[in-house]
Design a protein that fits this description.
The protein is flat, with a radius of gyration of 18 Å. The protein is built from 4 helices and no strands. It has about 100 residues and is mainly alpha-helical. It has a domain of about 45 residues. Helix content is about 70%, strand content about 0%.
């Protein structure tokens, strides 16, 4: 089976993204600038370290985002996993309003 056009587009996107990450992270590590890595910037932006008032929201966002990506990649967008169903149900209810009331 031949890859579809979108398959190649995603492969190219992943390659560019991975290359950009490798270049920035590699440069920071090679220069010994450990405060310029992605993980340190993620902790700063999300308020985890140094601690900001929104740090709990930041931690939750990182944790839930990681869970979503892992579930989505491992089981696919049409998975029947409990986490996926909960997330879809919440998104739908927020977009159309809670019709159960």
């Amino acid at each position: 089976m031949r890859p579809r056009r979108y398959t190649w587009a995603w492969i190219i996107w992943l390659a560019i993204t991975a290359s950009g990450f490798a270049a920035l992270e590699g440069y920071a590590l090679r220069k010994g600038e450990f405060d310029n890595t992605l993980s340190v910037h993620t902790r700063r932006i999300t308020g985890i370290h140094p601690r900001k008032p929104w740090h709990l929201i930041g931690r939750a966002a990182v944790a839930l985002g990681s869970l979503w990506v892992a579930n989505h990649v491992a089981f696919g967008p049409h998975s029947n996993s409990r986490l996926h169903r909960i997330m879809i149900d919440r998104m739908v209810s927020k977009s159309i309003g809670d019709v159960s009331r």
